[in-house]
Amino acid sequence: MKFKKTMLLLTALITAFSASACSSNNANNSAPSASSSAAASTQAAETGEEELAPEPNAKLIIWEGKDEKPFIDAIAQEFTAKYNIPVEFQEVPSTEQRKKLKTDGPAGLGADILVMPHNTLGDAVASGILLPNDFYAEETKANYPKSLVDAVSLDGMIYGYPRNVETYLLYYNKDLVKKEDLASWDSIVKFAKSYNDVANNKFGLMWQVNDFYYNYSWIAGSGGYVFGANGTDPSDIGLNNDGAVEGMKFYQSLRDALPIKAVDATADVKTSLFQTGKLPINMDGVSQLGNFTKEKLGFEVGAVPLPPMPNGKSPISFSGVKAYYVSSFSKYPNAAKLFIHFATTQEAAMKNFELTGLIPARNGMDSDPKIASNEVVKAFTDQIKNSQPMPNILPATQIWGPSTASLELIWNGGDVKEILDKSVEDIKAGIEQQGKNNRSISSIP
Length: 445
Hints:
By secondary structure, the protein is an alpha+beta fold. The protein contains 19 helices and 15 strands.
């Protein structure tokens, strides 16, 4: 215990020194917040307490999407009852939080706690809007798979507090298609071709053909990749190697099963067709878990992980790690960290699952009977094991435009290798320009 106290005290002193250094370079609220965080950490170290001491008169704002409101409201009520710290929920989609905090944070209007996808971490850290996950870092590493911890870390520093993993698989209408018809892509294509009735807007299979997030699975499953060194080396781009070409040729062949323009396979169209019984097989994400139920649709929904491709390899889906983050503009960083700790315990994670259907990411929770006994949820936990977190470094922001643009060209029958080569050239140019822009900004006194 004495050694542990000493290490906590040392960590607190380092944090305080870092906060002091930052305050000389940044004229915002992060310096006082970090200092108060260090003071409370020091207090915890000296007393041997494992819990952060929240700032006096703390009050918190958390940004999150509307689907999570039932859980946030419930856990906030418990937290307030225990710590006497009010928590206000404000509906802000996760995709908008980073941009909003950049403007609202300096004005003192931003949230204390964010919930963002991990692939935005590089930009968020470069923008200076997040505080590290310091006090609970070791606990985070102990309770979550390394791949998830890496996803919410940058340059060896943990920033996020993992909550759940989002990926995609095949939902299917049990009244229209048998599970055995989804055992392989050959059988799926065969079924779809026999079911399709384009004139009446009926299709056996559909997914967002024009969205790189969903179609990266063919590339990764065949040996392609975004960046080398597990997504950390932007000088090594694998989106036009032999595996990527093979994967995109398979993607191109699927037009036989879905004879429509790429731009017509939108999320809204696909969801509507599935809900109205005109689409038996729907590739979609975990966010639809609460919507695709017998109670809401009138038919029983099944789900299976993405089956093997004709080359025998299984598609590797992209995944996003949703995590809590503490704003660097927060006046109450200790209280914010304490709330996140409270909201991510095993008990809280199960409550979240029960209230919202959100699948916990903590180690071992996939074997809980409430999760393992649910066919659709179990299919997602299996797919997650065969998924790959999106890169989170800043250059990764340059992959989406060129890669998405290449999809329609390939879908329309273009030369796969030539299209992918051009896409990679555009990605490299974007990364180079991004680097020049960052150097120009950093050179401003």
